[in-house]
Amino acid sequence: MKRKPRSLIVFFWIFVLAAYSSAQIDKINIPAGTPEDRDLQAISNQRDAAKKLAMYLDFVQKYSSNPAAVAYGNWQISQAYQTSGDLNKALDYGDKALAGAPRNLDILVSQASVAQQAKNNQKLIDCASRGGEVCSSIGKQPKPDGMTDDDFSRQVAEERSAAKNSCDFLESAGFNVIASETDAKSRMAYIEKYSAAFLDSKFQDQVSNYALYTLGPGQLNDQARLIAYGEKTLAANPNALPALLLMAGAYVDDSKAGSVGKASAFSAMITVPPHVSGTNSSNRLTTMPPHRSGRVRPSGRSCVSKSMNVSPASVHRKTQAAAPCRSISKPPAPISSWRSRRCRSSW
């Protein structure tokens, strides 16, 4: 009976254990000392950019039967084309890399940065959303048999820490797409994709405001979706002032039986600063805000009727909403250097 080489068996189990411990995130591992590793070392030593690109192209062809090598090579080719300014080819090879490692955060961040540079909002929101799904999955994998709760918690904490910069970049980049999109239909599609991926986003309130504004009058004017989204928002945050304003106004304009009562109920739930006229001793509105003067603007603030004497600044403080955040415009540096590691590895 022919026996398998011991080194192959050891490598197999290392691969299985690594995949099991981080089943939610794709990693690219190229063990040190392999032919792939030696060829990558030669490519790394090449200083001429054109020759290095040609060597990566040859590398992908030479090791076409090795999915990890192909994904890594295509990723490096994508970055090379990005550096040279050929963003279309960079996106093409980034897609090829993601085909081999669809849940690799390094590659998703790299592809998102190319899309951002190319001003390709559709590609950018796709990468951001896919990355959001990966980030949200960290810690949701089952605890391996034999691992203690403390060890598992420590492993999850390490994975979250390692992924934090990438996740923060993708979350901010995706939100900036929503904030900059001028077409209402496209903006709403981006919002739905983003919200499904980033379930606990730090931009959750602002995204909800954009959604309510987009579905409201002057934009998509979709009454049914507006009410559904408003109810969903209020279920998560019963004190969301923009949602309360819009729901009250939406039901004022609704001709269905019972709508006026619902508008009154939502109006009664609105809390505004105590100095505002038209409020009672509990700081509740005693009059319903008109729909069109209570719509949410895309800046993330609420605009209410002048008769209520509420300034945008005071509503801004109440809702704790902010203008579109663009504080993270650069992606974290990709982990393409492997010299300090035993094997070439990427999240």
Short description:
The chain has 14 helices and two strands, in the order H-E-H-H-H-H-H-H-H-H-H-H-H-H-H-E. By secondary structure, it is mainly α.
Kindly describe this structure:
With 347 residues, the chain is mainly α. 59% of the residues lie in helices and 2% in strands. Helix 4 (67-84) packs parallel to helix 6 (105-117), helix 6 (105-117) packs parallel to helix 8 and helix 9 (184-197) packs antiparallel against helix 10. 40% of the residues are buried.
Please describe the structure with a list of short key phrases separated by commas or semicolons.
14 helices, Serine Threonine Protein Phosphatase 5, Tetratricopeptide repeat, two-stranded antiparallel ribbon, disordered N terminus, 59% helix, 347 residues, 2 domains, mainly alpha
- What would CATH call the homologous superfamily of the largest domain? Tetratricopeptide repeat domain
Q: Give me the CATH architecture of the largest domain, please.
A: Alpha Horseshoe
What count of helical segments does DSSP give? 14
Q: Rg to the nearest angstrom? A: 26 Å
**Distance between the first and last residues' Cα:** 39 Å
Instruction: Indicate the mean pLDDT.
Output: 78
Main CATH class of the largest domain: Mainly Alpha
Low-confidence region ranges? 1-23, 275-279, 281-329, 334-343
Listing every helix as H and every strand as E from the N terminus to the C terminus, the arrangement reads HEHHHHHHHHHHHHHE
Q: Helix proportion of residues, in percent?
A: 55-70%
Compute the number of structural domains.
2
How would you characterize the largest beta sheet? 2 strands, antiparallel
**Structural class of the helices, strands and pairings?**
mainly alpha
Beta-strand content: under 5%
Tertiary shape = elongated
